[in-house]
């Protein structure tokens, strides 16, 4: 058996993770009964799940689907696009090399539209940009295209101009990076992940070995269930980090930065147990379809 970490995660985030992982594989739709069963495995009761689904529907994240007598939901078109774009960021290992180009996001918002200004700052922070000054934000150039798509989907792209180039200064870049980014907040998130899942690779390797195909072939339903209960919260906690950490060169970060180790652990455990978790999740979907 494996110890189950219990990070504190909102139901709505877990539901989005489940749709991103399994909703698209199940034809886009998931019956509410399956969501209740999946969230039940993660310790959430049915009334709470129904309430979270209602809130996501009110926000336009989920839409209800008429298909037979069972209540079903799917990601809205906008949410599906965001989830697909998120996969590119979450599952694509990336770290900029020292001396690589930077992208500047420069925005100007009329005083009468302060709410838009706040939204821009929030989105750019979530996308991993650091603040150089009023209306000027910076990130490694590799995040530019994803940021452009994200702002466009939010209706914020008309206020922003992107410029790519080199930083031609003899300044201490480590000091500059510490000034532009809130590294303490990012380090705190990385530490939370490491405190919760730092031993996960060792634990799962001891349990199933290091060959995911053999592990899947030899797995029992209980093992696949445990993998599901472990993997969904792990991915939900992890997916915040690739956005907040835009892949800054290690030379510009404090000594002993744990980001690369957290990334190594996540991707190694993902390789081992994601197939087990998926088989369990899809078995729930298939059982519901057959009922």
From TrEMBL:
InterPro entries: PaaX-like_central, PaaX-like_N, PaaX_C, PaaX_trns_reg, WH-like_DNA-bd_sf. Residues 181-282 form the Transcriptional repressor PaaX-like C-terminal domain. Residues 101-175 form the Transcriptional repressor PaaX-like central Cas2-like domain. Pfam families: PaaX, PaaX_C, PaaX_M. GO terms for biological process: DNA-templated transcription. Residues 14-78 form the Transcriptional repressor PaaX-like N-terminal domain. This is PaaX family transcriptional regulator. The lineage of its organism: Bacteria, Bacillati, Actinomycetota, Actinomycetes, Micrococcales.
């Amino acid at each position: 058996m494996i110890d189950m970490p219990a990070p504190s995660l909102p139901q709505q985030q877990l539901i989005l993770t489940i749709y991103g992982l399994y909703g698209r594989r199940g034809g886009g739709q998931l019956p509410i009964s399956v969501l209740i069963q999946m969230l039940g495995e993660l310790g959430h009761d049915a009334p709470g799940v129904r309430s979270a689904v209602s809130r996501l529907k009110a926000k336009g994240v989920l839409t209800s689907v008429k298909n037979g007598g069972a209540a079903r939901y799917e990601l809205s078109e906008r949410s599906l696009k965001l989830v697909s774009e998120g996969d590119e960021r979450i599952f694509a290992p990336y770290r900029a090399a020292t001396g690589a180009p930077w992208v500047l996001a420069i925005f100007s918002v009329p005083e009468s539209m302060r709410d838009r200004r706040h939204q821009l700052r929030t989105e750019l922070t979530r996308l991993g940009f650091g603040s150089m000054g009023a209306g000027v934000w910076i990130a490694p150039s590799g995040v530019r295209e994803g940021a452009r798509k994200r702002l466009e989907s939010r209706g914020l792209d008309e206020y922003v101009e992107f410029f790519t180039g080199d930083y031609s200064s003899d300044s201490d870049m480590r000091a500059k990076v510490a000034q532009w980014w809130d590294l303490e907040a990012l380090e705190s998130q990385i530490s939370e992940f490491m405190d919760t899942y730092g031993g996960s690779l060792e634990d799962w390797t001891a349990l199933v070995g290091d060959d995911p195909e053999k592990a899947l072939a030899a797995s029992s339903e209980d093992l696949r269930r445990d993998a599901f209960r472990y993997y969904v919260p792990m991915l939900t906690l992890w997916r915040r980090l690739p956005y907040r950490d835009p892949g800054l060169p290690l030379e510009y970060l404090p000594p002993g930065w744990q980001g690369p180790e957290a990334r190594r652990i996540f991707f190694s455990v993902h390789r081992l147990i994601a197939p087990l978790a998926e088989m369990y999740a899809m078995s729930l979907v298939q059982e519901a379809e057959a009922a």
